[in-house]
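Hi,

I'm pasting everything inline rather than attaching a file, because the server keeps stripping attachments. The sequence lines come first, and each chain or strand is labelled.
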Amino acid sequence: MNIKPSLLDYTQKELLTLIKPAFRVKQIYGWLYHQYAISYDDMKNIPKALKEELAQKYIVNPLTIINKEVSSDGTIKYLLQMQDGKTMEAVWLKMKDTQFDDNGEVIQEAKFTICVSTQVGCKIGCSFCLTAKGGFTRDLSAGEIVAQVVTLKRDNNHKHNRMINIVYMGMGEPLDNLDNLAHAIKIFKENEGLCISGKRQTVSTSGLSNKIDQLGKMDLGVHIAISLHAVDDKLRTELIPMNKTHNISSIIEAVKRFPIDTRKRVMFEYLVIKNKNDDILSAKKLIRLLSGIKAKVNLIYFNPYPGTTYDRPSKASMIAFQEYLVDHGLLCTIRDSKGIDISAACGQLKEKTENELC
Ligand code: SAH
Ligand code: SF4
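And the predicted assembly:
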């Protein structure tokens, strides 16, 4: 199989070293990030000879949409295929509807977030996660990470200069693919590209504490979200086996060292599983654990899938847990389960499509 790098694998500066003359790079960059070109044929003002030369070495966009599920709340889940035939998911999330004034004029455009994958499968092996069940296949390249955003913006006719947020919460552990992740973050930030600042990008991690430090030292300006899920190491190791080597206190220490915009809070995600971690004693311990950190807790309903032994918590227990935290001064939201009517949790569309295809 002849797998080529894609033009989306490079920053503009890198492309300048690969493609001459320089003004063609600017034009190509516009085709990639403003027009969302998917083939060289799209690039109308680029000479045929240069396109033929480039096509020998690079493809334009490495992804093909092979399945798409649209939810009634505006969430769209995509199954995307790469050059080697492997698949992964990306999700288009509508965070806010368009706001109109009394005359029907738009006063604020709808707001969207794209949830991207960083690996095919995952090595971490969390017991509650469907992605973990298939094991690890491979890291995504920077271009494959970038292409998810380009492809979803293109499919939704989202203009290049309209703001978008990125969350690295799809399949895989972003910090286990740190080099490609960091490169993708830089490409997203390019002024003449998608121009998505670090502030608009949130890296979610299961807590590889040494890699949290490495990401912090890169000073990319991104936010981090910690998938905490448990307040004592015994339960956390049951849920996230690598907690044995990166335990809760090592994560908390790494978070304290991470460069955080002083106006912002570190997000702690807490997946709530019925009768496992939904009791008030856990809420109490959580408050103690996060004291001294400018934190925000996001409670997530466990999203069940066929074969899991865990259950979704009741709404009453979620609210009681939230109220306890809020009453004790901790900012806490409950993540609304977007796309609940489609294969919402991480890995579910991939699993479903592969079962149907087999
Ligand atoms: N590997 C990273 C990012 C991808 S997972 C991480 O673990 O943070 C993104 C989020 O989805 C994590 O918070 C994870 O705990 C959550 N998740 C995984 N399986 C889930 C399920 N079945 N129901 C609800 N959330 C789930
Ligand atoms: Fe990997 Fe995150 Fe799933 Fe854990 S929850 S297996 S770290 S993708």
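Residues 166 and 201 are 5 Å apart (CA to CA).

If the labels don't parse on your end, tell me and I'll reformat.
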